[in-house]
Design the sequence.
């Protein structure tokens, strides 16, 4: 994102981020890195609380760790929670994060519905670039939803009979 785009982004900022990771240091580092770009950053160590968070709030971006159980590195917990998030909010922007990343896992993450994949420890510039790309995607989703609602309303209005028309000719009445 260019400096100009960042300035515009920050002026109209209502961004809400959820970060779910069992490592307190990761939560703190991500929060500090994203703080200048998001007024609402929620962090959680326990993924089992995700459904409650999603029921209360709609997040622009969700960062989700892939492993929560000690000595487990396969990422299955992350894939499970990714599916649960997408059941609740199909257009959610979810970025998976893991210390045990490889190309195969990244490909699976995207196929399962993740927006992107970050490996720990991350480089701040790459982390922010991923975040800004996710925000552009989120903006596109929101714009698409707005256009769909407008189209739906136009369809409803088009099919209404207009009773307040001025004129009596057959063309006007039609």
Sequence:
């Amino acid at each position: 994102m260019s400096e100009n785009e960042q300035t515009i982004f920050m002026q109209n900022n209502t961004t809400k981020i959820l970060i779910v990771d069992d490592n307190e240091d990761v939560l703190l580092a991500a929060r500090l890195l994203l703080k200048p770009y998001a007024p609402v950053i929620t962090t959680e160590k326990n993924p089992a609380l995700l459904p409650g968070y999603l029921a209360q709030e709609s997040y622009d971006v969700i960062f989700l760790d892939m492993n929560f159980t000690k000595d487990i590195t396969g990422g299955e917990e992350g894939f499970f929670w990714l599916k649960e998030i997408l059941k609740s909010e199909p257009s959610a922007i979810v970025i998976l994060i893991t210390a045990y990343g490889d190309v195969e896992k990244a490909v699976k993450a995207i196929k399962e519905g993740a927006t992107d994949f970050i490996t720990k420890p991350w480089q701040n510039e790459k982390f922010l670039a991923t975040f800004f790309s996710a925000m552009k995607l989120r903006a596109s989703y929101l714009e698409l939803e707005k256009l769909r609602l407008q189209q739906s309303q136009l369809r409803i209005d088009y099919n209404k009979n207009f009773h307040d028309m001025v004129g009596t000719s057959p063309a006007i009445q039609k």
Summary: The first helix runs from residue 3 to 11. The helical segments are 3-11, 24-34, 50-56, 76-88, 103-112, 124-158, 170-173. The chain has a mean pLDDT of 84.
